[in-house]
């Protein structure tokens, strides 16, 4: 589910149901596949729309308006499925790369001059690798771009807060491996034993965590966590707004044309005496009646003339 945001998933699901309803309206009077008991018709609405996801629909559509809608919808489904597949493949690839095993023992690893956890890193992270010192994010970028074999480094080791700040600027070029197995307790305030400030600070920090302000502060000053976590973000609805507008416009246009033709052919019902409620009921009855096939009628007439 991660390649797409929740909002986009819900929009896609609603679009499938909407397209199924549109196709049913356009095909109900002329296509026997969309006729029958109510249960069958509801099932056909969901089956036809969701089967387009894997292009498994076998029911032939007869209306030109339906063909127009289906062509547009299949194009949208193609774009959505391709985008989902590409983002999922990228996430899985990066997940496989999230390991220090991809760094060879002969590679150089960089760290910041004055690195507070230098002693921790010497024994756990940098102990098996050659190291180089750097003083700025620009030097980080240059060293990583060069690579270990060309005077740079294969990776950078630093505090998570500083790495998030670095990735907020170079998110499109680098990623941070999962730091959970190397994470310490993090930053902290240190007071002398018995200090009266400890309860006040603890209460304030707890309140910031509970009301979500700590996350807001972190995103503002250190960049979004999704960027620093894996270098890829879930695709959201904003990226596909144009596609959904196109399919919505195409479907609405097809429905408008269909109902215009339907009302024109049944204008005698609109002109008949009676209340609006009665006219709507008569139009609904007419809509549920199967439309006569002019081709079959013509063939039957020709056959009768030949027999005569």
The unreliable regions are 294-308
H/E topology pattern: HHHEHEHEHHHHHHHH
Helix content: 55-70%
Number of strands: 3
Residue-averaged pLDDT, rounded? 79
How would you sum up the global shape? elongated
Number of helices: 13
- Structural class assignment: mainly alpha
Indicate the radius of gyration in whole angstroms: 32 Å
Determine the strand fraction and express it as a percent band.
under 5%
Distance between the termini: 67 Å
Strand order, sheet with most strands: 2-1-3
Largest pleated sheet: 3 strands, parallel
Overall tally of domains: 2
Structure commentary:
The structure is a single chain. The protein has 308 residues and is mainly α. It folds into two domains: 6-95 and 238-284, no CATH class; 99-174 and 176-230, no CATH class. The chain is 60% helix and 4% strand. It contains 13 helices and three strands, in the order αααβαβαβαααααααα. A three-stranded parallel β-sheet has the order 2-1-3, covered by helices on one side. Helix 4 (118-124) links the parallel strand 1 and strand 2 (130-134). Helix 1 (6-27) runs antiparallel to helix 3. The longest helix is centred in the N-terminal third of the chain and has 34 residues, at 64-97. The N and C termini lie far apart (67 Å). Residues 294-308 have low confidence and may be disordered.
């Amino acid at each position: 589910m991660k390649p797409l945001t929740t909002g986009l998933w819900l929009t896609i699901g609603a679009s499938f149901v909407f397209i199924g309803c549109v196709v049913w309206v356009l095909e109900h009077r002329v296509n026997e596949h969309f006729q029958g008991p109510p249960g069958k018709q509801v099932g056909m609405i969901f089956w036809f729309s969701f089967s387009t996801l894997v292009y498994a629909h076998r029911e032939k559509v007869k209306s030109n308006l339906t063909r127009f809608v289906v062509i547009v919808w299949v194009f949208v489904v193609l774009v959505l499925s391709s985008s989902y597949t590409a983002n999922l493949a990228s996430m899985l690839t990066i997940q496989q790369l999230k390991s220090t095993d991809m760094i060879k023992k002969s590679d150089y690893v960089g760290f910041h001059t004055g690195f507070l956890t230098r002693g921790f890193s010497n024994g756990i992270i940098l102990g098996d690798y050659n190291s180089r010192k750097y003083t700025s994010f620009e030097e980080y970028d240059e060293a990583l771009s060069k690579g270990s074999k060309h005077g740079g480094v294969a990776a950078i080791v630093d505090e998570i807060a500083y790495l998030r700040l670095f990735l907020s600027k170079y998110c499109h070029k680098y990623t941070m491996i999962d730091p959970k197995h190397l994470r310490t307790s993090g930053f902290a305030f240190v007071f002398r034993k018995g200090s009266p400030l400890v309860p006040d600070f603890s209460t304030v920090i707890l309140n910031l965590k509970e009301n979500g302000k700590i996350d807001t502060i972190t995103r503002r000053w250190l960049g979004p966590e999704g960027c620093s976590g894996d270098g890829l973000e879930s695709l959201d609805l904003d990226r596909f707004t144009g596609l959904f507008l196109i399919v919505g416009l195409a479907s609405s246009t097809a429905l408008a044309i269909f109902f215009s033709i339907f009302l024109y052919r049944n204008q005698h019902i609109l002109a008949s005496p009676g209340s609006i409620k009665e006219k709507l009921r008569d139009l609904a009855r007419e809509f549920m009646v199967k439309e006569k096939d002019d081709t079959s009628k013509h063939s039957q007439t020709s056959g009768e003339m030949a027999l005569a």
